[in-house]
Amino acid sequence: MAETANIAKLAELLANKVFPVFGWKMTGSTNQNWPCEKQTEHQRQTHPSDVVFFYDEPYSLHRTYVNCDLKSYAKGSITTGAVLSAMESLASSLACAEISGTWSEMYLDKDVNASIVGLLFVYNHDGEYDKNFDSVLSSLKHEKIKVPKGSRIVILGPRQIQWLDNVRHEIVYMRGEKQLPDEGSCRFHYPELVRRKNVQRVQARAATLEMLTGPWITLEYGQRGTAQFGYVIFYRRRGESIEEFLYVLDYLMHYQMVDEGIAIKLRLLDPDPNAPAHFKRAINEYVDAYDGGEAMAALLNKIEYSSITNIVSQFSQIEVGMFHG
Q1: What residues pair up with 71 in beta bridges, in sequence order?
Q2: I need a surface site. Which of 63, 97, 246, 288 has the fewest CB within 10 A?
Q3: What is the DSSP track for 75-116?
Q4: Has residue 2 got a pLDDT over 70?
């Protein structure tokens, strides 16, 4: 039993290291059970909340609360059946959390517009899972998962978690090397959208679930108009084609992020061997396609391309038992 409890703690340890770096804040107590709203006098049921994080949405006046189910599996335990069971449980918890006065009292801040989402965090604690997690997800019988209308559940699989952990590690490393300022001078970047004027984009500093599961994560640092202002773009894909980088360049140019005096760093994890060449060719093609001339070429060629050191966070069950037993 102690060994099982220690294994379960591993996902919690990693989640509590990763998400705060992306601006998420924890609320309430961890590993809490709370009463089901549908229980009867003869059938007492509870739901678990391993940990609840929150962040402010950039494009709406809402605060998102993320009710997390943190799973720590060995490679052979990551099966469609295990994931389906966890999803069904999380969907049931989510349906109750939306109407539960107890859950609200435990986790919600008063006087905020709250949205609750579920997050299934599937961590491979032995680091040996080498299968395609998408095949596990594609085998799920989604009709069995009763997600409340208007709500959602997000699943982070082993490779997504490793990607986020590597971005987290790179941010911490860059701060230590003085390549980034401290947390108070950084925010995750959301461009101003024409159709979304009444927003809290400037105040919202955290990376949303949409950003964390998207093709890249954009960190903005420093104060606009100063020499220390810039962006770091953590690009999730491997740069296997020129078209990938053309898409990135179009994003940067469309939202006017490329300008004189603005530093832009592009970071890739486990890039394709030809990714640097693809990036250079993409710049040339982009300049030619838009007749940008030497001025545009000079700005785009200042983008700093480099790879991220691939790390795998693993924890000793013995140490976990010593500190959490």
Answers
A1: 122
A2: 288
A3: GGG--HHHHHHHHHHHHHHHHHHTT-HHHHHHHPPTTS-EEE
A4: no
Better-scored residue on pLDDT, 318 or 160: 160
Pairwise CA distance, residues 296 & 283, whole Å:
9
Q: Is the dihedral of CA 244, 259, 256, 187 positive or negative?
A: positive
- The residue count of the chain comes to 325
Q: Evaluate whether 148 touches 95 at the Cβ level (below 8 Å).
A: yes
DSSP label at 156? E
| Residues 104-157: tens digit of each pLDDT | 999 999 889 999 999 999 999 887 777 788 888 888 877 778 888 888 999 999
Q: Which two tokens stand for residue 149?
A: 């209308």
Tens-digit pLDDT profile for residues 231-259:
999 999 999 999 999 999 999 999 999 99
Domain ranges of the chain: 2-158, 163-308
pLDDT tens-digit series, residues 267-302 = 999 999 999 999 999 999 999 999 989 999 999 999
Residue type, 127: G
CA distances for 40 relative to 35, 43, 71, 100, 292, angstroms: 11, 5, 29, 15, 69
The radius of gyration computed from the CA coordinates of the chain, to the nearest angstrom, equals 22
* Cα 205–chain centre separation: 13
Q: Which of 69, 97, 83 is nearest to 8 (CA)?
A: 69
Does the pTM of the predicted model rise above 0.85? yes
Through-space distance between the first and last CA atoms of the chain, rounded to whole angstroms: 11
**Angle (deg, nearest 10), helices 275-289 and 293-300:** 150
- The four Cα atoms 140, 153, 82, 207 give a dihedral, to 10 degrees, of 120
Provide the 10 A C-beta neighbour count for residue 201: 18
Look-up of token digits 């999730």: 236
95 exposure class (CB count in 10 Å sphere: 0-12, 13-18, 19+): buried
